[in-house]
């Protein structure tokens, strides 16, 4: 082998080794803080992270360190799914409904050491507190489950259907799911029997999806597990809001909903779903779409 | 001699046909052969009548693993009471459900009467899976 080629090979190998060393060093550096337990501010209520960190990173996973708590006594505990109906909101435009409450209390009685966290989705479902710890002995936790209706905060309740939510309660690593529902009535202006119109528009959405080979998205995707019901909710919203003040055609509306379900840009405008202009004329703010990213993918 | 051979051959054919029928029965014997529309209609009729325990049999195997029959029936009865629902009237079950492979979606319209006397229309959809025993409903639907 010529001398200069040998030199280049050696230089290349040296550079490769240096790069590998740097990579290992950086991964060790990023792993180091994870091995350090987070600071504890209030061990009785929330001892996963300091308050400031929790405010900054509310979605960080809970620490499931169990060595400092006694053994729990789960006498009647079975993992699985339970159902917690939250009541009826007969008019989606009202913030309070006189007929039924939209707040419920979930009470847990603990024996022994229990550390847990409650996760809720979608955005309209709220649980307070969602962190708790019972280090030993008997303890009771009352979690307030409530429905947020402020569309501006991205609550996203759909009219004229049972809205389904999920609570996931993790106790010492055990998972218990609660399915929840809120029955929401149609919009105020949705009067008379509009069934035929709702289904006609729904079929336009199906047509858009079928044309592109995405009909499966109408049944369900990860983002919208019951795609058809989601579409029907948006249709009643559209009709109840006077077709977004008569400024969004049925064809455009069907196209937007089909894009939301398939997560693809059908219009070729570089945007998936409802645009900012659509929100300005009456589409729900929480339904705002997003710019098309690299490759669209039906989920 | 020729007649005997013919008889033997036809007997073999008969055995083969019987085997085919038995095999087909074994493969489809557990399925109720109901279409998504039929299962959905049955489910909604039971729901309107408050027969939640009967509806439990129409859920997918996974859904039944998640929740027991008694809990399912009790909670759904409770949901009806908590929601102030007096009666449910089936207005429409879509005749042409969306079916893709072994998944289907059946949209429907119900009219729900509340204790206040108010009647509200709701538009929903059932998500269904085709399993060994036929089309079954996914619960919770999302």
What would you note in describing this structure?
The complex is a heterodimer of chains A (299) and B (142). Chain A has eight helices and ten strands. Chain A has 299 residues and is α+β, with helices and mostly antiparallel strands. With 142 residues, chain B is an alpha+beta fold. Chain B is 46% helix and 29% strand. Chain B has five helices and five strands; from the N terminus they run αααααβββββ. Chain B has helices spanning 2-28, 36-49, 52-56, 61-66, 69-82, and strands spanning 85-93, 98-100, 103-114, 119-131, 134-137. In chain B, strands 1, 2, 3, 4 and 5 form a five-stranded antiparallel β-sheet that branches. In chain B, strand 4 and strand 5 (134-137) form a beta hairpin. The A-B interface holds A 80-88, 90, 99-100, 160-162, 164, 166, 177, 179, 181, 183, 185-186, 190, 193-195, 198-199, 202, 206, 215-216, 218-220, 224-230, 232-233, 235-236 and B 65-67, 71-72, 75-76, 78-79, 82-85, 91-92, 94, 98, 100-101, 103-105, 107, 109, 112, 114-116, 118, 120-125, 127, 140-142.
Draw up the topology in text:
The complex is a heterodimer of chains A (299) and B (142).
Chain A: H1 3-35, H2 51-56, E1 80-89, E2 103-111, E3 114-121, E4 125-128, E5 131-134, E6 138-147, E7 161-171, E8 174-184, H3 195-211, H4 216-219, H5 227-240, H6 242-246, H7 250-262, E9 271-272, H8 276-281, E10 290-291
Parallel strand pairs in A: 1-8
Antiparallel strand pairs in A: 2-6, 3-5, 3-7, 4-6, 7-8, 9-10
Helix pairs in contact in A: 3-5, 3-7, 5-7
Chain B: H1 2-28, H2 36-49, H3 52-56, H4 61-66, H5 69-82, E1 85-93, E2 98-100, E3 103-114, E4 119-131, E5 134-137
Antiparallel strand pairs in B: 1-3, 2-3, 3-4, 4-5
């Amino acid at each position: 082998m010529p001398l200069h080629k040998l030199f280049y090979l050696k230089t290349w190998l040296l550079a490769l080794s240096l790069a590998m060393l740097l990579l290992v060093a950086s991964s060790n550096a990023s792993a180091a803080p994870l091995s350090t337990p987070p600071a504890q501010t209030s061990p009785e209520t929330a001892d996963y992270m300091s308050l400031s960190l929790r405010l900054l990173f509310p979605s960080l996973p809970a620490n499931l360190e169990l060595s400092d708590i006694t053994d729990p006594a789960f006498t009647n505990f079975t993992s699985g799914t339970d159902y917690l109906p939250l009541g009826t909101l007969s008019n989606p435009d009202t913030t309070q409904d006189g007929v039924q409450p939209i707040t419920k209390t979930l009470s847990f009685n603990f024996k022994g050491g229990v550390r847990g966290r409650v996760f809720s989705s979608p955005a309209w479902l709220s649980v307070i507190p969602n962190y708790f710890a019972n280090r030993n002995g008997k303890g009771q936790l009352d979690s307030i489950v409530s429905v947020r209706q402020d569309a501006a905060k991205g609550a996203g309740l759909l009219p004229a259907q049972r809205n389904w939510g999920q609570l996931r309660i993790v106790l010492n690593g055990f998972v218990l799911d609660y399915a929840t529902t809120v029955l929401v009535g149609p919009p105020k202006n949705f009067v008379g029997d509009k069934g035929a119109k709702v289904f006609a528009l729904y079929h336009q959405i199906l047509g858009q999806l079928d044309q592109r080979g995405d009909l499966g998205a109408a049944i369900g995707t990860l983002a919208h597990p019951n795609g058809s019901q989601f579409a029907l909710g948006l249709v009643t919203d559209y009709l109840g809001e006077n077709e977004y003040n008569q400024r969004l055609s049925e064809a455009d509306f069907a196209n937007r909903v089909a894009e939301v379900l398939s997560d693809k840009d059908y219009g070729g405008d570089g945007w998936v779903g409802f645009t900012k202009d659509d929100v300005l004329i009456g589409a729900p703010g929480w339904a705002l779409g997003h710019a098309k990213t690299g490759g669209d993918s039906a989920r | 001699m020729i007649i005997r051979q013919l008889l033997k051959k036809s007997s073999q054919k008969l055995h083969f046909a019987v085997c085919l029928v038995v095999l087909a029965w074994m493969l489809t014997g557990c399925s109720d052969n109901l279409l998504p529309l039929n299962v959905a209609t049955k489910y909604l009729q039971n729901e309107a009548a408050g027969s939640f325990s009967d509806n439990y049999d129409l859920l997918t195997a996974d859904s039944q693993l998640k929740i027991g029959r008694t809990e399912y029936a009790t909670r759904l009865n409770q949901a009806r009471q908590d929601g102030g629902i007096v009666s449910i009237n089936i207005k429409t079950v879509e005749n042409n459900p969306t079916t893709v492979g072994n998944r289907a979606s059946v949209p429907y319209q119900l009219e729900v009467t509340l204790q206040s006397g108010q009647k509200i229309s709701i538009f929903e959809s059932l998500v269904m899976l085709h399993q060994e025993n036929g089309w079954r409903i996914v619960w919770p639907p999302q």
